[in-house]
Design a protein that fits this description.
Helix content: 25-40%
Strand order of the largest sheet: 7-6-17-18-19-16-20
Radius of gyration: 22 Å
Largest sheet: 7 strands, mixed
Structural class: alpha/beta
Bound molecules: flavin-adenine dinucleotide
Strand content: 15-25%
Distance between the termini: 45 Å
Length: about 400
């Protein structure tokens, strides 16, 4: 099995928030798995990170509309603060990206966040808060593939899934979660607005690439560490943050290649399109529960294999993966329709997949990355107990929102 990212270590909820586990219990049914539906509406004022009303409303600029920035902006603005979110991309969600093209109608795949472990109470709690429905992530039928040392084995679901906890996914695509936050925030989110300068004095002036400036009492910066260096900070960031942003804090690389097939040819031999190999890769059939004759398989590779695919152009990446799949899905190329890919290292607004510092880097720089610098605060999955997960990003956004709200 390919090692996954560390499981969540959840921070103690801020004293100003309601207890998250109580909230999750109230949403109901999230501890047991199988098919989970959050369709029963919860009280609109309930959320896992609800803050008390602000005694002294502040003007807050949030840099980045990923999960950490969105949850902070949402809770701060519900508490009465005047929030503006500046996002470099033309979309919200950051490393939550659902891809719907070039696939059949109703088919989608995830370039980033996809599966939700049962203990991720913030991700599940906010999905419930917004009335999003959840489905099982892995199929329970069909054979899983394992390909190692040139040997191809088929694994029954009971055996394969015993290695994997019961993960779920957001029905319709992971991007429904950031979209739900953004819909509530409305025009407080400004997209296509990359921040270039943050100048802190008695107030903070944040300037975007189009020259537009925003004055605020506080700024919350949620960009991945490698992107801190693309913003001019005055005064300059601490030496620890500077060291981290200049490559001193290791990030993992990850690339996904998606291939659309005219038929689900693998089903002829009872396969469900999922598996693992020693390429190494994870093979996913993301459209397993979607209608239609077509199917989209994806390969999920990290580290050196991701770097190798990134060196190819888009079409060549797809061809490389198809040729490799012929080893254990013979005849795959004959059913090929189209393909695409996403490299998080090549994405200018991520530059990497997720933070994976060495123990030394973590000990020396980890806590410094979370430390506010005057009125400038910091959040993001890299500053959490669940790096590489939406839950970690939400946890860090709530921690920073509590920091701003509380003082
Ligand atoms: C391949 C992959 C697989 C994953 N799988 C899972 C999974 O299965 N389950 C799960 O829970 N999580 C998963 N994750 C992790 C999850 O996607 C992230 O932890 C989370 O989305 C990070 O949120 P964030 O707010 O910390 O950062 P981001 O999402 O990166 O948000 C930061 C935002 O800042 C913006 N930005 C950058 N620079 C600027 C600037 N100068 N000005 C303005 N805006 C700027 C960016 O465009 C971005 O929108 C996965 C991630 C990857 C990459």
């Amino acid at each position: 099995m390919i090692a996954d990212r560390p499981e969540a270590i959840l921070a103690t909820p801020d004293s100003r928030t309601i207890n998250r586990r109580d909230f999750v219990r109230r949403v109901g049914g999230l501890a047991g798995l199988g098919l989970i539906s959050c369709s029963s509406p919860v009280e609109p004022e309930d959320s896992p990170g609800t803050l008390t009303p602000a005694d002294q409303p502040l003007r807050v600029v949030v840099v980045g509309a990923g999960m950490s920035g969105l949850v902070a902006a949402y809770e701060l603005s519900r508490a009465g603060h005047d929030v503006t979110v500046l996002e470099a991309r033309e979309r919200v969600g950051g490393r939550v990206l659902t891809v719907r093209s070039p696939f059949a109608s109703g088919h989608s795949v995830e370039a980033g966040a996809a599966r939700i472990p049962p203990e991720h109470d913030l991700t599940l709690g906010y999905a419930g808060h917004f009335g999003l429905e959840l489905d099982r992530f892995y199929p329970e039928d069909g054979l899983f593939l394992r390909y190692e040392n040139g040997e191809r084995a088929t694994i029954p679901p009971s055996s394969f899934l015993s290695e994997w906890p019961d993960f779920v996914k957001i029905r319709g695509g992971s991007d429904r979660l950031p979209a739900a936050f953004a819909a509530e925030l409305g025009d407080r989110v400004v997209t296509a607005s990359a921040v270039t300068d943050i100048v802190a004095g008695s107030t903070v002036t944040t300037t975007a690439r189009d020259g537009q400036s925003y004055e605020s009492d506080r700024v919350l910066v949620t960009v991945p560490v490698p992107l801190l260096s693309s913003i001019r900070f005055s005064p300059a960031l601490s030496s620890a943050k500077t060291e981290a942003m200049n490559g001193g804090f290791h990030y993992q690389s990850a690339t996904r290649v998606f291939v659309r097939f005219r038929t689900r040819f693998w089903e002829a031999e009872g396969l469900n399109g999922w598996g693992t190999t020693d390429w190494p890769e994870e093979l996913w059939h993301s459209t397993w529960d979607a209608q239609g004759p077509e199917g989209v398989l994806l390969t999920y590779v990290r580290g050196a294999r991701a770097d190798e695919l990134d060196a190819l152009d888009g079409d060549a990446r797809v061809s490389r993966v198809l040729a490799h799949w012929e080893d254990y899905l013979p005849g795959a190329s004959a059913h090929f329709a189209s393909g695409t890919s996403h490299s998080w290292q090549r994405d200018p607004w991520s530059r990497a997949a997720w933070a994976e510092p060495t123990p030394t880097q973590d000990a020396e720089l980890g806590s410094a990355l979370a430390r506010p610098e005057g009125p400038v605060h910091f959040a993001g999955e890299h500053i959490s107990g669940a790096r590489g997960w939406m839950n970690g990003a939400l946890e860090s956004g709530l921690r920073a929102a509590g920091e701003i709200h509380g003082g």
